[in-house]
Give the backbone structure.
Amino acid sequence: MKASFLMLSRLILSFVFALSFLTLRVAAHESRPAYLEIQETAPGQYRVLWRTPVFSGARLPIALKFPEDAGELSEPLVQDLGESRIERRTIATGSQGLVGKRIEFVGLQATITDVLVRVKTLSGQDVTTLVRPSQPWFELKAVPSKLRVAGTYLTLGVEHILGGIDHLLFVLALMILVKGTKRLVATVTAFTVAHSLTLAAATLGFVHVPSQPVEAAIALSIVFVAAEIVHSHQGRPGLTERAPWLVAFAFGLLHGFGFAGALSEVGLPQTAIPVALLFFNLGVEAGQLFFIAAILGIMALARRLVPQTDTLKPAWAWRIAPYGIGSVAAFWMIQRIAAF
């Protein structure tokens, strides 16, 4: 049985470090779709902004293909921003414009990246949709749907939180530290309320905080809670254990700025800002609840497979989670500070 426990402990530790390695390759806290914005500036004329992510110095190999009757009025202007490349151009189409026509993303089917598309027309339409590799094209409909906007931003919210390993490690650390279902529910609720407030405030432009210090501080918040787990086990309970909802609320405000940074990259449709913001936040919460449920399920399975007898557990076993989480977060913090 002791060997079984050691094996389970090593698996958990390997899982933590596998997640951290993954985040170094795909950007530690954000899901990064490609982005296409098309704005009609005159009948049949459109200003195009096309942004593709850059991974390890290489631009994602996706090419735009407009309808055959669309011609370029200006040479593309290309700007490299380190983590993405932006192309700006102006195109002209026939008298019918782009309504009912297909825009293709050549090469998207060979990737795992989505494309967020926004189209603004002179008639007042502001259409937002998410294009996936399984269907690498988009067709502008005559009548936009707010239901489509809701579905698009709900999906973006879920993908962002499930791809944001730093946010998930913070929640995991809270789950380890906070004892009792009621206290855990109160703590998670405080975290949710806090990051919802700053997400809305930052996205709507009421507050502006530079992204790089925020990212470093988010990593520091994980280190703090991991250290609190160690102190608690050593008989020195800290503020997080005594008032977990207070700490969760304070750091939740910080994490909300991180969520807002991801949302600001894709923007909000001007005619459906409340819908997009609400459903992005709901997506974040849905992803967070899914993660919590998965962790609780794993813990329940572990209790069934491993006897809960302290004599069978090595004395150092409790250190695996806090030291693993804290080490990964400390590395992120140093990395992000160095990038200032």
Residues 1-30 have pLDDT under 50 and may be disordered. The first strand starts at residue 34 and ends at 42. The radius of gyration is 23 Å.
